């Protein structure tokens, strides 16, 4: 297990891609929208609420889903990231932008559920500047499921 985690973290460190957007630094929301096909707009922290009634939402990771992060003092607009692979019930691989540095796209970044109830409400995410999972847990709402994917029809009216 430790070898797999080390390999994933090593791969994640190699897949950082600096990208300049036309309006400056590429943000997480436009990137997640492009990758997932989920058509939500505005600050990432508002995506969970916007998804109600439009997209399925839940606490189970699925490939193609968007993990929606809550706003915090250090992450005032929240964050969104797309799930590219589910490793097990507590670990996924994310693709996202602007997490480890301005305008950086990360492909194959490990995220680990560290919530006490195993419900993905707190995660630690690979952070390139330190080369491992971040030191603090980030609060999340859960996963937003795109149309046509497993779980897309759950919790539409919650």
Automatic annotation (TrEMBL):
* Signal peptide start and end residues: 1-23
On whether Isomerase is a keyword of this UniProt record, the answer is no
Give residue ranges for domain Peptidase C51: 3-124
Pfam families documented for this protein: CHAP
Q: Read off the Gene3D superfamilies from this record.
A: endopeptidase domain like (from Nostoc punctiforme)
Q: Which UniProt keywords apply?
A: Signal
The keyword Signal is assigned to this record: yes
Provide the protein name. CHAP domain-containing protein
Species, as recorded: Novosphingobium ovatum
């Amino acid at each position: 297990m430790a070898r797999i985690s080390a390999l994933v973290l090593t791969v994640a460190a190699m897949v950082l891609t600096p990208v300049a957007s036309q309006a400056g630094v590429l943000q997480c929301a436009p990137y997640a929208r492009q990758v997932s096909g989920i058509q939500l707009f505005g600050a990432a922290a508002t995506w969970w609420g916007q998804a109600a009634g439009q997209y399925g939402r839940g606490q189970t990771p699925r490939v193609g889903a968007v993990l929606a992060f809550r706003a915090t003092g250090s992450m005032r607009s929240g964050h969104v990231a797309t799930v590219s692979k589910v490793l097990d019930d507590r670990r996924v691989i994310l693709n996202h932008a602007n997490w480890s540095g301005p305008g950086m796209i990360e492909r194959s970044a490990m995220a680990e559920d560290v919530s006490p109830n195993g419900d993905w409400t707190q995660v630690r995410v690979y952070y390139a500047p330190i080369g491992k999972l971040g030191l603090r847990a980030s609060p999340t709402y859960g996963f937003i499921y795109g149309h046509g994917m497993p779980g897309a029809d759950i919790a539409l009216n919650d």
